[in-house]
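Subject: Sanity check before I submit

Could someone independently write out the structure tokens for this chain? I want to compare against mine line by line before I put it in a report. The sequence has 435 residues.
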Amino acid sequence: MSNLVIGMIGTGCLFGGILLGINVMVVLGLVGAFGLAALVGFNASTALLSTVFFETTHSFHFSVIPLFLLMGFFAMRAGLGEDLFEATSRWMGNLRGGLAISTTMGAAAFGAASGSSVGTATVFTKLALPQMLDRGYDKSLASASIAIAGTLAVMIPPSALVVVYGILTDSSIGALLIAGFIPGIIFAVLLCVAIWLTVLRRPELAPLDPTQYTLREKLASLRLAGPLVLIIFCIVSGLYVGVFTPTEAGAVGAALTLLLAIIRHRGLKAVQIGATLIETIRTSAMIFGILISALLFSKFLALSGLANAVGGYLTGLDVDPWVIVVLVSIIYLVLGMMMDAPALLAITLPITHPVMMSLGFDPVWFGIFVVLLVEIGAVTPPVGINCFVVQAASEGRVRLEDVFKGLVPFVLAGFAMLVLLYVFPQIALFLPSRM
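---
Independent answer below. Compare away.
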């Protein structure tokens, strides 16, 4: 049996295991380990396994992930999402669709601190959804705006998912984090425009809020939301000018967010440091497990020759590069409906990354492009994990069908962002090129 056939069988087993509901980390690791044993023998494969485990666990780059996660968990424990929503709703809530727009802007800021798409969707479902529904907002518009706003968490730095991409592709993590800043802001604006156009066409979806706030009340709402935005700005600017590394940025962000949490709750008790650390360890362990298993599977694909065969076929097609980009986009959108983001990147990048590099695309640009693709997949049916999160956190006030029904204008905004990134790659590359 040829190595290529073994690679095809292994890939088939991988997707078969996923469809059967086996944990992605387990099936990735098993296929990678047994596939390597079939290709190079038991003794050589065990040597490769030990090398992968050591190189992965001792890598300095991996310390970025738990620090960014810790920063996000401190932000959630501190209730900083509530502060951000309160601030944005006071400034924009009296516009038509203003609460939905406020949710988007607040989620963008909170997502930058938390780095978690699911966490941001959960927090803002509990904060914003009841207020929107109580003020007469359409269920589909309200719930869908929260589901898509959660995706901004992985675009605007710091983002754990961007770090995962950087580790899997051996790309510059600092450049990737900076590259997501401008696209994340533009995507947030596009989502706000989508809300505005939707309620402009159908005003009954979002009644005007009669509540008026004075300038003093608006400024007062910034007392804690303002410092959090300032922390995010300091992290991004510090990375940009080279004051600290991504790992140091995560440490600074976690420390400052903890300080904000202590100030907000006037003590350590409500912050629950012990529980927060345990939650960070669990999430980090899950991501590390997926990454280690993914690297095993990546070595298996490389040694089998399947990755080179698929890449050679795609790059050998006599078509314009945009055709390959569309094909890759479809793959990510379809697979993104069925699995979470780290697992999807782990499975696909060993093949898609070399293909895109051989076509001359920049690895930093592709990182931002593929992260956006993965997150659009996270809100599209039949799975759409963010949609399930919103429905579950709504405590029965909206149905899953309501969330999916309202997503059309926001998914179109996501596609528009993808087109902008392809046509104007400097949107993602401008800041990294000047670091």
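---
OP: Matches mine. For the report I'm noting this point. DSSP finds 23 helices and no strands in the chain.
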